[in-house]
Structure formats: C-alpha cells, structure tokens
Design brief:
Elements lengths: L2 H14 L7 H11 L4 H14 L6 H5 L8 H22 L5 H19 L1
Helix pairs in contact: 1-2, 1-3
Length: 118
Amino acid sequence: MKQTETASFLAVIKTAYPYFEITVPVTKLWHQMLADIPYEVAKERLGKHIRTSKFAPTISDICTEEDTQPSFYELQRAEEQAEALALEEYNQQAVPMPDHIRERLERLNARMRLNHES
C-alpha cells in the first residue's frame, strides 16, 4: 500500500469512527504494517469491519483474514449433499433383482404370511 493510499484508508476510518485519532506516529505505524497488503484488499476488509463493528479497527483486524472455517451446519449440509450424491450414483448403477430371486422371495413371503395368520 502506498503512503497516499494509507492516508486515504485512515481518512475512511476517521469518517466511520469519529473518535479515531490520526497522528503522524499512527500514520507511520499503519503504513508500515499495511505496506504488504494491496489497497483493494485492505479497503474490502475495512468495509466488512465497518459493517459489523461499532469500534474502530485495529491493525490486526485489517491484516488478518477472517476465519474461513465452515460452521457445523455448513459441514453437515455438505455431508448430506455428498451422501445424496453417493446414493443417486448408486441407484444409477444398481442392477435390478433377477426374476428367479424375486420369485423365490415372493414365495417365501407368502409362506411366512400363511404361517403368521395361522
């Protein structure tokens, strides 16, 4: 990030958070810490911070990326989708039951019903 971009960045913070003080040491520190972060990335992170926090950001709020670990519900949803896809794939590859086995099962089932009714 360039020096002019750092100044512009700090001006946005000051606009969003009026109690944020901009001094020469503050400007130098922010510029030094944000030097390796592209301006657009820092601006995007600042925008997210402004939308979600009532307190002025710290340097670490801008430098560190958000924790992108999926939530428990997102993991569960992904697992269910994977299981549904596996079941669909299985059903597409499944072979119908041979007729002679189906006939034997039907006869066995009929015998079991007769024994159960008696």
